[in-house]
Specification:
There is one protein chain. By secondary structure, the protein is of the alpha+beta class. The protein has one domain (3-181): Beta Barrel (OB fold (Dihydrolipoamide Acetyltransferase, E2P)), CATH 2.40.50. It has four helices and eleven strands. The longest helix is centred in the last third of the chain and has 20 residues, at 162-181. It is globular.
Length: 182
């Protein structure tokens, strides 16, 4: 049995999604390296003027204008229950296309730095660990082994779930008047 078949069988046995071999954009968030499949990425832009939107969850950093379209920008640091991204020289917004209820939406993610596009073979992708990560395991599509290190491969459909973010925004709206009374 070859290594690739064993890795696929292992993922299927533990119920994890099989992450296809392919090209991934790697980026930094704090000291951690993450990756997203390049097929979900529309473009990478410099962090520019962002407009804050009142009464949004803290992880929605604001909106930007991308060729006339309003695109929400998610701070992955806050989304992962860590620190907010500090703006620096290499801070940028990665624009992704995510599907929700059959419609495609553009969503930006704020990252500390974009590294490179790299090939990761399916045999070099392990399932997400059941524990020990500082982000929700359902956000992780797999752990890609790159040069004896691991990079967290994110599942953009889960991390950027439009439905979940809308529900969180609605919860924040409902919680705000209660908090103001106390």
């Amino acid at each position: 049995m070859n290594r690739q078949a064993t890795a696929v069988e292992h993922r299927e046995a533990v119920g994890a999604a099989v992450v296809p071999a392919g090209q991934y954009l790697t980026f930094m968030l704090g000291a951690e390296a993450y990756a997203i499949g390049i097929l979900a990425i529309k473009e990478i832009i410099e962090q520019g003027q962002m407009t804050r939107v009142p009464m949004m969850p803290e992880f929605i950093r604001g909106v930007i204008n991308v060729r006339g379209a309003v695109v929400p920008v998610i701070d992955l640091g806050v989304r992962f229950n860590a620190q907010a991204t500090v703006m620096g020289k290499r801070t940028c917004v990665v624009i992704l296309e995510v599907e929700s209820e059959g419609e495609m939406h553009d969503v930006g993610i704020l990252v500390d730095a974009v590294n490179e596009v790299m090939d990761i073979a399916a045999a070099d992708v392990e399932p997400a660990p059941a524990f020990g990560t500082h982000i929700r395991t359902d956000f992780i599509a797999g752990m890609g082994k790159v040069e004896e290190k691991f990079v967290v491969i994110l599942d953009p459909a889960r991390v950027l779930s439009v439905d979940e973010m809308a529900a969180l925004a609605q919860t924040a709206d409902q919680a705000s008047p209660v908090e103001a009374e106390h």
